[in-house]
Amino acid sequence: MNIPWMALALMGTLAVTLISTDLQASTEQNFSDDPLAQRCIKMLDIYAAEDFDAYVAEFPEPWLGIFGEKTLRKQLADRHGKYVKEYQAQPDTIKIKAVTPAKVAKIEQEKLGALEAKEIDLYIANNKGNSSATACKYLRIGDSWYFRSLRL
Questions:
Q1: Helix, strand, or coil here: 87?
Q2: Which residues are registered as beta bridge partners of 146?
Q3: Would residue 68 be called left, alpha or beta, if left means φ above 0 and alpha means ψ between -120 and 50 degrees?
Q4: What angle (nearest 5°) sits at the alpha carbon of residue 43, between those of residues 41 and 48?
Q5: 100 phi/psi in degrees, rounded to 5
Q6: How many other C-beta atoms lie within 10 A of the C-beta of residue 101?
Q7: 52 CB neighbour count, 10 Å cutoff
Q8: DSSP string covering 27-64
Q9: What is the spatial distance between Cα 76 and Cα 66, in angstroms, rounded to a whole number?
Q10: Residue-wise pLDDT tens for the chain (152 aa)?
Q11: To 10 degrees, the CA torsion angle through 100, 141, 139, 26?
Q12: Vertex 57: Cα angle to 115 and 76 (nearest 5)
């Protein structure tokens, strides 16, 4: 008499597990077609190539005037160095984990006129065991989205 109840309990547990796994899979989103996610991944290529013109083109117009070329070149060189050191400029895995609204800092509102912000959460790894969770931040200024940061 206990065996049918155990079998029934086991089947119930299996059904709950399958339903739970199915729900988890259905809630995962594919962000590969999101334009900001694609731009975020492109920033990794810009870091790898240390392409200053492409780097500056991602920022809003006043950015170069606010920070100056020397500061932005140093920033890019630092990020290039870290990216190459960690991933040899060629990660094996880049996963877009989420695209979420982000807080617009007061200075971003005042200096740049930012209206809203989004963060693109990434997971980056290489075959040598280096990995990190990071995020790009983009600001909407007027009708356009501009790069703000990518932490490495």
A1: helix
A2: 139
A3: left
A4: 105
A5: -135, 155
A6: 9
A7: 15
A8: H----TT-HHHHHHHHHHHHHHHT-HHHHHHTS-THHH
A9: 16
A10: 455 444 334 444 334 333 333 333 334 578 878 999 999 999 999 999 999 999 999 998 888 888 899 999 999 999 999 999 888 767 889 999 999 999 999 999 998 999 999 999 999 998 888 888 999 999 999 999 999 999 88
A11: 20
A12: 105
Q: Whole-angstrom Cα distance, residue 11 to residue 39?
A: 46
* Side chain identity, residue 35: P
d(Cα 123, Cα 131) in Å, to the nearest integer? Answer: 7
Strands (E), the chain: 93-102, 114-125, 131-141, 144-150
